[in-house]
Amino acid sequence: MKLRIQRNMWKISASERVTDKPAFWEEFRDNNIIAFGTYGEGDIQHYDNVSDLEKKISELKNTKHSSPTANFCFEFRDEVESGDIVIVYARKTIFGIGYVISGYYYKEDELGKGKGEKEEFGYKDGIPNRRDVKWIVTNSIKDEKLAILSKPQITFFKLNKEQEKTVIKVLKKQQILDRD
């Protein structure tokens, strides 16, 4: 099946911050999900705004510094739509591409627990913040041009136009894109 780009494109990191290892790619692929960990703040559905979540994360991390975590949590929860494309990425490599097929949900289980190298990355409680995905591409695609997806260095974000164009070029080169 070839990929058709009709909606927004989002990147989610699959790696530890320090290595190229795709820490959660197998969980994503095998369970048909994308997901991320938490700092112990629980279901992000219970937060009405970014600042409330940011305060809770700062409290749990014992810091006064703001982080992009609360923003990407709300984007993941509220802005992603069914049919959007998600790219699982780490260090110039796309590990998977799929279509989002569900709304946000929170599920506590053993998935991802104990996988993180450090608790401050939010893996202590596993990866309970989720959306279901229909995977279209599950083989790795490595290309130097994909380094553009490393910025910004956050777990989850919507691709800008320049990033989309680069991904489209790489996918056309790989002959897995159904779009001129």
How is this fold's topology laid out?
Blueprint: E1 9-13, H1 25-31, E2 33-36, H2 50-61, H3 69-79, E3 85-90, E4 93-100, E5 105-106, E6 129-137, E7 141-142, E8 156-158, H4 161-173
Parallel strand pairs: 1-3
Antiparallel strand pairs: 1-8, 2-6, 3-4, 4-6, 4-7, 5-6
Helix pairs in contact: 2-3
Would you mind describing this structure in some detail?
The protein has 180 residues and is an alpha+beta fold. The chain has one domain (9-173): ph1033 like domains (ph1033 like fold). Helices cover 24% and strands 22% of the residues. It has 4 helices and 8 strands, in the order E-H-E-H-H-E-E-E-E-E-E-H. It has helices at residues 25-31, 50-61, 69-79, 161-173, and strands at 9-13, 33-36, 85-90, 93-100, 105-106, 129-137, 141-142, 156-158. Strands 1, 2, 3, 4, 5, 6, 7 and 8 form an 8-stranded mixed sheet that branches. Strand 3 and strand 4 (93-100) form a beta hairpin. Helix 2 (50-61) packs across helix 3. It starts with 8 loop residues before the first strand and ends in a 7-residue tail after the last helix. The relative contact order is 0.25. The mean pLDDT is 83.
